Amino acid sequence: MNRILLVRHVESEANRSGVGLGRADSPPTELGLRQLEATVQALTDEPVTRVLTSPLSRARLLADGIARSHNLEAESSEGLIELDVGELEGVEWPIVRERFGKFLRDWRGDDSVRVPMPGGESLLDVLTRARPAFDELVNDSADGAAVIVTHNFVVKMLVTHALDMPPRAWRRIDTGLCGITAFRIVDGMPAVERLNDRHHLRHV
Q1: Mean pLDDT in residue range 115-121
Q2: Are 70 and 55 in contact (CB under 8 A)?
Q3: Which residues contact 164 (CB under 8 A, 6 or more apart)?
Q4: From residue 51, how far is each of 1, 6, 59, 171 by CA, in Å?
Q5: pLDDT (tens digit, 9 = 90+) per residue, 146-159?
Q6: Alpha-carbon torsion (95, 110, 182, 82), positive or negative
Q7: What is the distance, to the nearest Å, from the Cα of residue 32 to the centroid of all Cα atoms in its chain?
Q8: Which of 33, 99, 103, 156 could pair covalently with 170 via S-S, beta carbons 3.0-4.6 A apart?
Q9: Whole-angstrom Cα distance, residue 70 to residue 65?
Q10: What's the order of all strands across the beta sheet hosting 189-197?
Q11: pLDDT for res 165
Q12: Which tens digit of pLDDT belongs to each residue from 10-39?
């Protein structure tokens, strides 16, 4: 591939409600559907030849829209699914702070990438399973651009991987809904062009 674009999913009901969201298949909001249209339009002129997606509907809907605009079919990948947040799924943050104090202290520490969600995954688990899909595209000699539609923590971890940053740098990477992060592949290495670009959403 000449370029790889990481795109975060559209707004879901759980995003709007501000509850813990991992693998629950929360439906898109009306705003999310408008974000979908704007993001598809923003990628119309990209020479997209492959679209990979998390199987969750908030990502899959966007991936299908992007793929259709390029006469493609989106490829579902379990490795691109969001962090399994375990017992935090659907829980409001004030309750998380009340019930999971020790977890939050560990999560805010220097070794946060190794700290599993209560009953769920760690960020290193996410990186381990998401990295092969990204690396396959980096090593693909075909021309064109590939789009990966995925989730907050997956994008963060793949950016650290692509730029050879320590995984603990994930906190320094912002990932807004439908944000586009683009890499140009130069001599087999990703070079960042855009990071969390959301200008296409300014009128949504």
Answers
A1: 97
A2: no
A3: none
A4: 12, 10, 11, 27
A5: 999 999 999 999 99
A6: negative
A7: 15
A8: 156
A9: 9
A10: 75-76, 48-53, 145-150, 3-8, 180-186, 189-197
A11: 97
A12: 999 999 999 999 999 999 999 999 999 999
